[in-house]
Amino acid sequence: MDRATGDGSINDLPWASVFDPAANARALSAIQAEGFRAASEIVDRFARIATTGLNGKDRPTTSAAPLTNDQRADLFGATDIEPLMRSWWVMIGQFLLGSAPHVPDPVSTDGATLDLSSAAAEGRLDFAASVPGVATAELWLHNRGAADLGQVQLRCSDLLAHDGSVVASGGVRFDPPGVAMAARSSRGIEVQTEVPVGVEPGVYRGTLLAEGHPSLWLPVVLTVRAPLT
Fold first, then answer.
1. Which has the closest alpha carbon to 114: 123, 104, 106?
2. Can you give the pTM of this predicted structure?
3. Cα dist. 197→157, 168, 201, 227 in Å?
4. I need a surface site. Which of 69, 120, 157, 177 has the fewest CB within 10 A?
């Protein structure tokens, strides 16, 4: 805000500061402060009118007739404090909603992800299928760094149930089998697990690994349901 002229224009920040979060926050605070000041002046004017009348003289001491519901609901011509305060709060609420900066929705982190550049893993790989059938899940690989990580391939262990039943790792397929992880890139991989005849219903668990990244791993959970009848 121009502190020399007080005309409400914002000219004390360079144009480059439009992209500076701290400068934007200061500008927003200045705008909000000016809005509150203007709102306070309006409230003071309404209060003076309600007390002294439109011509600035004291109101007569004779009691006035009770206000009707329509008069009490009049936001601008009201002589009652309740509609006046209601008008003030409505105006302040609209100002704050209009001046609040837009915050984009956060990026969803649901599902299974491997961050190759920072060696971080999130979520787990969940499958579900009936016997016989094919269970499908999706996995995302991220390379947020500036280095090209080359071709990355995934491996999955056998999936083991609590009673010793096994779904062999040979039935796990990746599409595509390997992905090129260039700098600052993300790739999605479809993971399929074949559930052949003879596999007992239950929950099978294993581990998924990324070749060349020994610190990265994800839990794998396959839920096998009874055959459909």
1. 123
2. 0.52
3. 20, 13, 11, 9
4. 69
